[in-house]
Amino acid sequence: MICRSRAGRRAGAVVLLLAVAGCTEHNALGTIEYTTPAKREVKIQSPSDEGCHRLPGGAYHVTNYTVDDIRLYSNEECVLTEDGKDQSGRIGGESFYLGTLTSVEYTPGQSPWLSYSVVGGGG
Fold first, then answer.
1. pLDDT tens string 1-31
2. What count of other Cβ atoms lies within 10 Å of the Cβ of residue 36?
3. Closest by CA position to 86, among listed 78, 75, 94
4. CA atoms of 13 and 4, how far apart (whole Å)
5. Tens digit of pLDDT for each residue in 49-69?
6. φ, ψ of residue 122 in degrees (nearest 5)
7. Which distant-in-sequence residues (6+ apart) come within 8 Å of 45 by Cβ?
8. The pTM is what?
């Protein structure tokens, strides 16, 4: 005869739930901090490593305190800009690769970054 206690069943259910939850969503653990053109400071805690994320108000200074690198974009769709419409006025699309534990500062004449995506992640 096999007897199972309630505590044992609960522990098994918790382990199963954590295993399933771990497979459904991954986050870039840590914080992304940015300053808007209006000098408002914003903190984003552990963003999902999937999809495109908007930076409401735009960002002139960004610091990546997450465990994953990010890529900043000058539009809200996380795509390279069209030819001739990049931040520096040069021909060709543009994004900015920001490694973990690094920051990037606004350059005069640059448009604000409006979105970002997490690079790598998924692990």
1. 555 555 555 555 444 444 444 455 689 999 9
2. 16
3. 94
4. 13
5. 999 999 999 999 999 999 999
6. 65, 10
7. 31
8. 0.70
